Every structure is written in C-alpha cells, then in structure tokens.
Amino acid sequence: MESHNFKYDDDGSIKRTGTWMTASAHIVTAVIGSGVLSLAWAVAQLGWIAGPVILVLFSLITLYTCFLLCNCYRYPDPVHGTRNLTYMNMVKTILGGRQYRLCGLAQFSNLVGACIGYTITASISMVAIGRSNCFHKYGHEAKCHASNYKYMCIFGAAEIFLSQIPDFHNLSGLSFIAAVMSFGYSSIGIALSIAKIAGGGHVDTSLTGLEVGKDVTEMQKIWYTFQAIGNIAFAYSFSMVMVEIQDTLKSSPPENEAMKKASVTGISITTFFYMLCGILGYQAFGNKAPGNFLTGFGFYEPYWLVDIGNIFIVVHLVGAYQVFSQPIYLLVESWCAGRWPQSRIMAKEYGVNIPLVGTYKVNAFRVIWRTMFVIFTALIAMILPFFNSIVGLLGAIAFWPLSVYFPTHMYLVQAQVPKFSMIWIGVKMLNVFCLIVSLVAAVASIQGMVTDLKTYKPFK
Q1: pLDDT average, residue stretch 315-334
Q2: What is the pTM of this model?
Q3: According to CATH, what is the number of the domain 17-454?
Q4: For a Cys staple, 285 with which of 80, 187, 189, 289, CB 3.0–4.6 Å?
Q5: Sign of CA dihedral 203, 208, 212, 218
C-alpha cells in the first residue's frame, strides 16, 4: 500500500513532483520569448512615459488574472475540490460546453501559431550568426544575405527528436535550460546596450517616442503605437499553458498557493528583464531602434558575443516550442486513446536504450503524430515566412479570451461574486479595456500582413 501511495496521488493519478521553482522555470520559458529583444523598438514607438507605464501595467494585469486562474484549478473549492487537468477542462467544468469550444479554438490556434512563429524566429537567429561572422570578415556594407529555409529544417529536426518527451512532467530539465538561455541573451542585449550608451554618440529620444513628421507619418505613428501596445500585452501572455504547468505541482502545499508563488517569481523576473531591455535599448538606439537588436544588427561588434546571444535564443526557442506544443500533443493523444482504447499502436510502449540516459519508453502513435505536427509547423513557416504578422493576429485574437475573459469569468462564477458589486464592475471594466487592446492590435497586425503581402515571393 505504501508503494502504491508513493507512486500515485490521492485521486489515483500518477504522483506529481513539481515545485514552485520548476513551475517558475516553465513560466519564464513560456513568457520570455525572443520578443524581449523587440522591446526597445516598442518603447521607441511609445516614448519614455508610455513605454515603461504600459510594461508595468500589463505585468500587473497578467499577475492578477494568473491568481484568478490558480484558484480555479480545483473546483468548486480552490484547495479540496476536483482537479481540472487542462485549461479547456477548467472552462468546461466552470462555464459550460459552449464556452469550452470557444476556449479550445482560441487556445489551440494560438499554440499552433506560437510553434510556427518559434520556427521562424529560431531560423532568423541562426541566419544572424552567419551574417554576423560575414560582416566581421568583409565589413558592415557587405551583402551577407542567406536563406532561412535550411535552418527551419534543422530546427524542425531537433523538435522531432525532443517531441518524444512524453509530457510536461518530464520537461523540467529542458525548461530550466531554456530559462537560463533567456537570462543569457537578455543579459547580452542589456550589456551591449550599456556599452553603446557608454561609448557616447547622439541618438534622438523623446517623451512620446517617434516624432510625427520627422521619423514617421501621422498614420504610421498610429499603426506603430497599436503594434507596440499589442506586442507588450502579448509578451506577458502564457495563460494558454498555465493550467498544464499547474498540473505538474505536488498536491502539498496546495497547488494554488505554489502556483501563485511561481507566478509572482516568473512575472517579476520577466518584468525586470523587459524593463531593462526596453529602456536601455531605447537609450542606446533612440527612435531608430531595430525590431530585434540581436538579429536586426543594432550591434555588429563584438561579433562573437552577438553570436552567443543568438545561440542562446535558438536553444531557448527549442525548449519554448516543447512547452507550447505539449497541450496540443495531449489533446490529440487523449482523444485517440479514448476512441481506440484496444489499439496496440496507441497503448504499446517499447523500451529503447539510450547511452548515459537509460531505458526510454517509445510509443508508435506518439512518434508518428508528433513528427507529423513538427513537419506541418515547419512547412507553414517556410510557406509564410512573414508569419510573425499572422502570429501577432492570432495573439491579438487569443489574448483577450485566454488571458482575461475566461480567467475573470471563471473567478466570478467560482467566488459567486454578486452582480453590480464593486468587484464585479471592476472585473468587467478590465475586460473592456483588454478587449480594446486586442482589437487595435489585431487591426495593426492585419495592416502589417497587407504590407508584407505586397512584396512577398514564396521560397525566395
């Protein structure tokens, strides 16, 4: 009986071993994407006042809605209720079937979009390493262009291998490595910004960012401002994998307490790096800040340090891809196992000996399905290499329902908050504000896609 208790939780599921520290690593891996390096550009659009204010504002909104989600993991009681193992399961339990289907559409379109976006971003960093060495060798004016496609294939091959990690419970090591990488390239970006500032040279900055008439037209200023606000809002968004992360935590102390601690830790670390990268990057480059100051060649030298920063980005994105793809894998595998419970291809696991690791369990369906998914994301990335605009659109559409609407409405139901009370009114106002942010960012993303399509030549 003791050995049974050792292996299983009180509800009969496999015993969970995660702590607030492993959850913090998952959060940092999920939240600090390579988008941290575009924050100098975002602050340049908004200026010295609005830039930092919006960064702090969205960190507080994210933390608040995370706390609400933490308490919905068990229902109806936050400590002793029944566990909700996935975000969709939570929505179905608390809000019902129709909301559940809308949640699934928003969550999985966003997760698939993120995986495609990571494939593109990782390939850009790989290309940047070759270009950095080329510029160092032949000078900054040299034509050092290279195709992203072979690098997308390399990234896809790595993800096919890593996709065989069975579930979130086995991802802790990869998440810690990815979290360390995110600190690494953020620190390199910060250090290079400080060095550029210390080196002197005049750059234009202002309280309101890019100046109309001098840097941009009035219409461009509006589009860029919307894009910048959207970029910052979505840079904090990790709600679509939060419940799955919470489901890795041990049952004692209560999961909601541990997850709140992890959320504070993860979002505090994230905000610290976001503020440094955004503010120091803006001070270094002013209104001419590139979209990504490690791949956009805001820095050329020391070239080896720029290379290391881009290597860190690639390694981080390898881990982040797995964090975002796990809920997709789980959904399809759970459905297929329920549909064909007697199938040997679903149930049979084979032991494979891996040197220095030990025996690894391999399942035939898992190998086939996950390999197909990785190939699909790589192909879409190749067909639409400007997909970041589409990912921005998916992020804009999914940010409000996943990060604000569902968490706040589940909280209102679970806590039985009276209609038209001060808390109810406050929650509804937060919903309206974030909906407006999502809509203006979606419009800005569509405008970016229209601009990209004018010059787009596939496989060139």
Answers
A1: 91
A2: 0.84
A3: 1.10.4160.10
A4: 289
A5: positive
